[in-house]
Write a structure and sequence with these properties.
- The protein is an alpha+beta fold and 112 residues long.
- The protein has two domains: 56 residues, P-loop containing nucleotide triphosphate hydrolases (Rossmann fold, 3-Layer(aba) Sandwich); 55 residues, no CATH class.
- It has four helices and four strands.
- The strands form two sheets. Strands 1-2 form a two-stranded parallel ribbon. A two-stranded antiparallel ribbon has the order 3-4.
- A hairpin with an 8-residue loop joins strand 3 and strand 4.
- It is globular and about 45 Å long.
- The N and C termini lie far apart (45 Å).
- The relative contact order is 0.12.
- The model has no long low-confidence stretch (mean pLDDT 91).
Length: 112
Amino acid sequence: MANGGNGRSFYVLDEPTTGLHMADVAKLLAGLQRLVERGDTVVVIEHDLDVVAAADCIIDLGPEGGEEGGRVVAWGPPEEIARSKDSRTAIYLKEYFRRRRWTKMKETNRIP
């Protein structure tokens, strides 16, 4: 990934945030974004909400794991998934976005 590349590579990462500090997750996201900006395709299997919320598109599989899973229950940008009635990820994303909005309002002193 660090070799420059030509923007035609396809990367698959499985739970890349496991064991990472929050600061390192931010660095990982910045690196993944650089890959996307140069034209590479990046697929990340992840549960970390910072990574999930930063995705261009989420493919949410479920509704359970194992034999009860493997079906696409929701597909689309994170904001759309947060509104899905079929996705178990939706409730977590909705809360994530609510907290993020609250934090931004606190930082800008715009709390009602």
